Structure formats: C-alpha cells, structure tokens
Amino acid sequence: MVENRPKDALVFTTKRGAPLRLRNWRNREFAAAAKAAGLDGTGLTPHKLRHTAASLAIAAGADVKVVQQMLGHASTTMTLDRYGHLFPDRLEEVAEAMDAARVKATRRADEAA
C-alpha cells in the first residue's frame, strides 16, 4: 500500500489524491461502513474504535511501550494517564518472581560453599 511512495506521502486520500477531511470521510465512508455492518445508531466513532483497539491490545498482554507506539502517543506517560487503569495489577506476580530468583541465588550460593 505504501511501497515506493515518499515517506511523507498520505496513506489515505480522496479518489483524487487530496487529503481526507474528517467530517467528509465520516459522513461518506465511516457512516456507510457502520450502517453496512448493522452498527448505525450505536454511537460508534473512529475514536471509540481507537480506544477499543488499545483496550484489546492491553487485554492481550501488550506492553505499555507497544500500546504507546500503536497509538502514536508522545510518551508512555500519556498512554498510562489514559489507559493505566486497564493494565493488570502485577505486583503479586513480580513479588513471586523476585522471591523465586532469591531462592535460586541462595541455592547456588549454598552449593558453591
């Protein structure tokens, strides 16, 4: 789709190659696609789809850095400010991993002595 095109070339354009205008695109393309999918009248927007994609990525175990890059956020702080509540609380998992590493290191030290 973007092979052999300048890096600054638009990916999505009108039929004439002009930049898409959000309102025009939403009315002509997005609304028609939502209607064809039986989703008209549901309040679905491109922005809601973006949030859904981010939420699904997090639920699938995506790292915050991956989600940041996927959304084009300037920093992981920006991503965490918006989606931090969706990342699982992994404190117990980290504590167990640290304890397992401590036990392993203690065993090695005992065996070496």
Automatic annotation (TrEMBL):
Keywords associated with the record: DNA recombination, DNA-binding
GO biological process: DNA integration; DNA recombination
InterPro entries listed in its UniProt record: DNA_brk_join_enz (IPR011010), Integrase-like_cat_sf (IPR013762), Integrase_catalytic (IPR002104), Tyrosine_recombinase_XerCD (IPR050090)
DNA-binding recorded as keyword: yes
GO MF term set: DNA binding
Tyr recombinase domain: residues covered: 1-96
Entry similarity comment: Belongs to the 'phage' integrase family.
The protein, known as: Tyrosine-type recombinase/integrase
Species of origin: Streptomonospora mangrovi
